[in-house]
User: Fold these one by one.
Assistant:
Number 1:
Amino acid sequence: METRKVQVTGGSTYTVSLPKTWATDNGISAGSVVEFYPEEDSLLLTPQGEEDRTEGTLDITDIEGEQLMRAVVTMYVSGFDIINLETARVTAAQRRAIREAAQRLVGLEVIGETGETVILQDLLDSSELSIVNAITRMRLVALSMLSDAITALVEDDDDLASDVVERDDDVDRLWYMTSRVFRGVLRDPSTATEVGIAREVCFDYHTSARQLERVADHATKIAELALELDEIPDEAAESIQSLLSQSTEVIETAMDALLEDESDVATQQANATRRRVDDVDEFTREVDNLVRELDPQQAQLLGLVVDSLGRSADYGGNIAETALQKAAPKP
């Protein structure tokens, strides 16, 4: 750590010198322009950016299918605005995988293709991306998936179950976007200014988005189990629906606490949610014991459903914990 003494020039201007080593390493010299970003009681300084778009290149030789899709997602989340995918010859299978990956990501489009290259570009800038809107949408979709998955299970509705499975891509798309913005905020102070959210709050939202993404995954799992199961006994159906109601309430209240601006209200909601999780865990065990009395195969599959609902409530508890940290006094 280095320290500098603040001086006054011209009677009203505060000045401070930059460490020479840092200036040299970052190409700062007389006449260079730097950027300042206020963040509460801190002031962040960076060299002025010269490029509006961050470009990256990846050799996709011998990469295809799911691995290639994952590579595209990784570069997107890492913050590349332009992604060049190169190989001696791009195969038809690779092009399909690249396009499928782009469809799963917010703002990413194929803007150029040759026999050796596919170019992708993020057509949105950070100021157009809202983490708050993203997690609010994730909340709605994930909880509707959970509710519809149980409805499909109870009513033996395979069409509805299949629809729930398909909707998981919508939640994943929002999750990747949230991760991209979060990593950008960590890497570049200007991104935090553009999105209008402090980095610490952005971390809280990113952490909670991860919990919602897991809720959607469990809703998908329940829907897939519903496709395997036929009609289930009324007593088991009623108990599972009751567990769904309690789990959903935990997640809803936790998200209300996370998005609440008043610290006292948020703390009260989050603490109530944390206490509620223990009750849901106890009821989960009761429902699990109930389904164990059924036919062995049916009991096994319904046990997985009950476990997913219980885990979803636990994820709501994790969101409530994050809400408590967000509402706590800052040191």
Number 2:
Amino acid sequence: MTIGEGTGRIAVTGASGLLGSKLAFRLAAAGAQQRLVVRDAARAPRLPDGDPLPDTDVAVVRGYEDAPAMVEAFSGTQTVVLVSAREDAQRVAQHRAAVDAAVAAGVEQIVYVSFVGADPDATFTFARDHWHTEVYVQATGLRHTFLRDNLYHRALALMVGPDGVLRGPGGDGRVASVSHDDVADVATAVLLDDDPGRHDGVAYDVTGPEAISLAEVAELLSAATGRRITYYPETLDEAYRSRAGFGASAFEVDGWVSSYTSIAAGELAHVSDVVERFTQRRGQSFSEWLDDYPDEWAHLRG
């Protein structure tokens, strides 16, 4: 992919994470100038020989709420890729702080990694955070694009307990989960487009190529691991009871449980053509992801 004529330096937040690092490598391969925003410089993506990525510098900040450091990190950049923060009761406030820093730094554009069905009344409680963030970004008047990802394939594998049971109140619902690779490819296409303005004000649903049930997820994991993995469709009461001993906050537990109830409600079943449109290839299915990333689910082999 070539760089669009109007592309300036790109700041990638969360660049040491799975999505941020994949995006950083893709931008570097395309010759884009970028700034990697990380908490720890030692964890910033680097070439296999240990050298920094070409045309890349690193900014270290303690977190999105570290306003002075965020303003400094964004200064001199044209676009900020705002990879959403980890689930937290203060996540919207953290996002707003990062957006404020982008405005103060004179950034022209924000590309925000959101979630499908972002809405104030979404069943999935974490999707409500994304809606509030989107509204805040829109109010800045900056150019903006929202990448609304579905659940990641990796998340489905992590839903399985040590006993080999994927349990949750997902009913017979289906989920069009997506790979980190496909999201990174779509983000790269948006950022380096020869006509970047065509993405202004647009929200893209980024999904996998098919919607599968949680029972099918268990079957695919069983085939991959050689171990019997099952799906147990909990009731809502059972879901809260089974998670009561995790020591998590009510905010976290509500998010975990509602990720399943949103599947049951059909809110994560829509399959979009965004990956195919932006990459000219079919997106990666869950079964294909299992083949390509065995280390990500190796813990399930038992």
